Model the fold of this input.
Amino acid sequence: MEEGTIAKWHVKEGDDVQAGDILAEIETDKAMMEFEAIDDGRIGKILIEEGAEGVKVNEPIAVLLEEVERSASGLAAAPKVAPIKGSSPPAKVEGIVSVMNETRKAISNEKKSPVPLASSQSATSSTVEAGLRIFVSPLARRIAKQKGIDLSAVRGSGPRGRIVKADVEAAKLGAAQSGTRAPGAISGLPDERAFYEKDAYEETPHDSMRKTIAKRLTSAKTLIPHYYLTIECDIDALLVSRTRLNVRTPKGDGAYKLSVNDFVVKASAMALMKHPDVNASWTDTAILRHKHADVGVAVALDFGLITPIVFGAEEKGLIEISNEVKWLAEKAKNKKLKPQEFEGGSFSISNLGMYGIKEFTAVINPPQGAILAVGAGQARAVVRDGNVVPATIMNVTMSCDHRVIDGATGARFLQTFKGFVEEPASMLL
Amino acid sequence: MSNSFDVIIIGGGPGGYVCAIRAAQLGLKTAIVERENLGGVCLNWGCIPTKALLRSSEIWHTLHRLKEFGFSADNLKFDLPAIVKRSRRVAAQLSGGVKGLMKKHKITVLDGEAKLKGKSTITVIKDGKSADYSTKNIVLATGARAQTLPGLEPDGKLIWTYREAMVPDRFPKSLLVIGSGAIGIEFASFYRALGADVTVVEVLDRVLPIEDEEISAFAAKAFKKLGMKILTETTVEKLDKGASSVTATLRDKDRKTETLTIDKVILAVGIVGNIENLGLEQAGVKVDGTHVVIDKWGATGIPGLWAIGDLVGPPWLAHKAMHEGVIVAEKIAGVKGVHPLDTSKVPGCTYCWPQVASIGMTEAKAKEAGHKVKVGKFPAIGNGKAIALGEAEGFIKTVFDAETGELLGAHMIGAEVTELIQGYAIARNLEATEAELQSTVFPHPTLSEMMHEAVLAADGRPLHI
Done:
């Protein structure tokens, strides 16, 4: 997550808040998050208005005033900004709060003065200074500021890539055309719209999920050395077990309906436990072998896709897995997933079998090391003991990050997986 | 010597020879064709020798102020042939210098007139003999010459162009200069300073008509103070040539005519591109009036055929041609990140008395273009160095966009402003706003402090006035 939208402020300037109070709702590319106060204090100034889009992580959004004891030194000292970086965020949402939470805490005496605002501004500029330097002409910088153009999204055409007036003017034009300020203009490249008649298409500006999909998948597919392993699984025994188990469901409370995919999740998790080299992630300095099989399940949405995670799937039964996947999918469709429900994970499954897809390859979901693409179970003629017999065959293709998983390692994992799928009871062994 | 090149440049003026040097630096096998002298008009018959003449007239001007500076001398005289000789020597020295530069960069200099022959061949003709050279690229850099008007054709004796005016054999007692652009005004300044009776006629309503209106007005006043007669909105109806003088019939805006008898006439009504005898038509080169049509990179639209300098149109300035020469050489060599020339960043200089220099838009043009402007002005009388030099005549004017702070234009008149304008050219090129210029430290005491003050004045905060 790099930026978000301030969907709603739950407080206004002057409100007293306590640690844990909900200050605002922040919509990110994947989910809506409640943003809590991490300290007691008073909202001195709201810096970013409700509805503001593209608010960068670490950008101050408000000033939180903390009362201090009146003391001689306290009064004499000039108020200072003391940025607190998620010192005590609620444990569950730690990853998020620590990046989003840049509420500035200004030490001030009780008398309200414009000082906190001024301090917060200086804090803002120092944040900018600490970041990557953008080379931009003074004139372009001023125009960008006046027009609200994000210079980090503008490509410079001046000497050594310096952003000049023409670039921000082109960016202005690009922003006006697409009706969004976010992508900025990539000057120098022809606008794809030029290839089509103006009324021959309908334009849908990218929302934050589309932008994330584009960025993450482009990065994954171009940076990760993918290779693919396909294996056929005979799922006749699995289908029989599934039918037997499903008829045992109670009515009403506790009812379940297992899908083939629930078996695939479970079989993957069990196989991952037997092959820890596959249950692994790449980092620049080391391979991380995960202790649990945290299996992501790709969920198609009207507006994109997301991969919520069944954590510790190796320890969960089929019913638990089944219910959890349904519940996560439902949350995803309502945009209610919390980041910790879709971030991380050690392995992913993407199943297009319900659409009759026989087999396909999926793009790895980093930082995971592999993803399993599951096809439809189809009745096919197979040769067994020299005889042609009917069987229900499901093809699965695993995309592997070769930096993490070598060919034979992946192949052995698939053998185990195939064993579990073809004889589900063997998972009990 | 092989007869095949990567690039052949036709014309050895400032655009052409600079293009050749850059091409050679980039490793291209380069040749340049020149029919007369390397350095072209600029170096041989324009910029450089006129500066030498004007230097002499400036000294003459100062000699007449000796008392003011604490000197005395009697019997002051000038020696016209010696002045002209010095000017020619300066030109010759620099032309020789260009020859040396060509040698240094191993550029083949082809002596003669060039003509396009087919797609990648040129013929060079010299004294009736011709030779063919094949090349991957051709750069047309043939420059321009004085425009003539019907009935006012120069004859080289009584009616001069810049060329004859540069090498007078006798000093003309009276002179009519037709046209008050840079060329006309520089010769008017030279001859007036040496004592000639000079009348300048300008068809438009002001002298130096491309400059900011306030600069024109200030210049006209200064010229008149020097004893020049300025007739604006006036045309020359006809020139009647006598044995050793010319009678000009002038018509003013009220259609009233008057006659004026003068020793010489200098025709300086603009220039026309040298598009003839190059085989442009056969090659299919697009020509608009007397200028070759090009895109922003100097390409004519015919693969491998490029054009630069005066030949492709205004501003008719050597430094513009040089810059275009560099751009074309780099495009030919495939250099990455080349930027097209933005003529609004090309400064212009006129070496009259006082000097005039400018860059970008005039105040009127800026408003016409829809800018909300803020204007700063600062007079030389508020500058210590100008007063110490005894050159406290002039002013600097800056034009900023009131919203963005962009330096839209700068206009200067006064001592050495032609040397100062580059400061604003750098500011414009780097897209400095008034804020950066205001926070820049200018050394004291210098004329350049006026530049600082003129920027401060745009925000109503000049320090020394």
Observations:
- The first strand of chain A starts at residue 3 and ends at 9.
- The domain at 3-129 of chain A is CATH 2.40.50.100 (OB fold (Dihydrolipoamide Acetyltransferase, E2P)).
